[in-house]
Write the structure tokens for this entry.
Amino acid sequence: PSGLVGDRQLRGGHLAFGHPRHRPRLPVGHRHRAGPAVPITGGTVAGRLNGTVLAGGGDWATTRGAVTELEARYLIRADDGATIDIVNRGYHFAEPGVMARIDAGEDVPEGEYYYRTSPMFRTDAPGYEWLTRTVFIGMARSEGTQVCIRFYSLA
């Protein structure tokens, strides 16, 4: 992607969810979270940071028309034992035909819809301090009941 530093890619993680990610629709301007959080039940992180996504996080969404505003909160346990807190906010939009394919379980290429996030990391682990002072964007895609996110740091 333009403006990103390729060698600073944090690389992907897979998040597993407790149940399908269907959301109630809300009228434009309605600003509360739509229902309970979808539980995040685990996952993996590989790249410059390697570890496991811990069960116990949640994913909230508010839908306005065809655009879904996302907010996920979860913990990563790095392979060396460090704990990293992440708040990942973003937007998901797909044309109706593409959304129907996603809902049917098809792995639709990420170039066919908009699914971007902006994570913020928090930790007191010295080896991961760089996460707390770096701005990232995430390029996400659905893979069955999981979400795969590739994070990139901004130059």
Q: What stands out?
A: The chain has a mean pLDDT of 80. The chain has one helix and ten strands. The longest helix spans residues 96-103.
